Predict the 3D structure of the following.
Amino acid sequence: MDHFTYRDGLLNAEEVPIPLIAESVGTPFYVYSTATLERHYRVFEEALEGTDHLIAYSLKANGNLAVVATLARLGAGADVVSGGELARALAAGVPADRIVFSGVGKTSDEMREALRVGIRQFNVESEPELEALDQVARAMGKRAAVTIRVNPDVDAQTHEKISTGKAENKFGVPISRARQVYAHAGALEGIDIVGVDVHIGSQLTDLAPYESAFTKVAELTELLRADGHDIRRLDLGGGLGIPYQRSNAAPPLPFDYGALIKRTVGHLDCEIQIEPGRLIAGNAGLLVSSVIYRKEGEGRDFLVIDAAMNDLIRPAMYDAWHDIVPVREPGSDQPVAPVDVVGPVCETGDTFARTRDLPLMEAGDLLAFRSAGAYGAVMSSEYNSRPLIPEVLVNGAEFAVIRERPTYAEMLARDTVPQWLHRP
Ligand code: LLP
């Protein structure tokens, strides 16, 4: 469910026609809907109703300050994985005691900063990290609240690059060794064990892997309690998938995910934390682009558009599908024909879709990629010296640019030519 619909023949973001934004900021650009962001956050709130819980929005999906501030206003916490994301969460108004710090490679500097501002917890992923955190905390005269991320060796049945809960993945400590690691943590003065953490992957389209992971976490919790640890919080990660292709079966609903959580870990009387990213931001965003050329190839046609893999890398990186729709509503009798939708970057990988059935579009026509609000703008780059594209947030009939497109001069100004190259 989103708020991008056709009105009077044009695709709108809430009450704003997309061509109006295109005229104002130029293409390509990202546009997000406040109403969709809010709705998706509330869907999780409703799914966990009746439990003591925190929804820690995963900033990696979309860390724009305006997006995070929209969610912070509703009471969201934040899941961060770097000092930069920590700074963003704080700047957007997420209270420090609602911020959890995940990630396999936290540096001592990042730990120090997180302890200084007083975050809620660290999700620790290894024994060396535990020792580093203990040292940093003791040097500051503090104790760090910690969950240990366990790797439950569960196949999330998602793309291999975003599957994280199998034994061969770099994440967490093997669940088989968890009691040992907790015993180690329990002996460290700078560490305050508060719970258990798990995250098995992203874009999960089936609840079964969650069921086995959460069941394993519940069993572990009982064992850890028997070992004398005060386990009072369970962080169950993120990962719930979204429908990228409207013609496919819909992934499980947050409500059913919430019911599963209650069924598998509800009896433990722990505070529940989840870290959704994609489900909140994904379908709240479009990438809007213009057709530059329609080009005839050998046996196939290409639509060359002004967005490229540097703006949205998911198709190149994960063979991801994004629905592509014309901004001008096609008539029901308008024929469709297969085209390859490609960007201007000098790589064959810069292909968004192959033989996609689309209504005829010509140079200058606008098109939109759906489900581009998560892992879109945040993963973009300036490859081929294509400046980062603007992000726009719509709220009802209003819209605002929430990240400007840099000028070429601004882009170049970040480089410095060393002094010796100025010498004759
Ligand atoms: N928590 C942890 C520890 C994570 O590693 C992730 C995602 C999340 C939460 C949020 O997961 P979500 O609810 O968004 O699925 N760039 C890839 C996705 C990478 C996900 C990485 N971790 C993509 O475009 O599909």
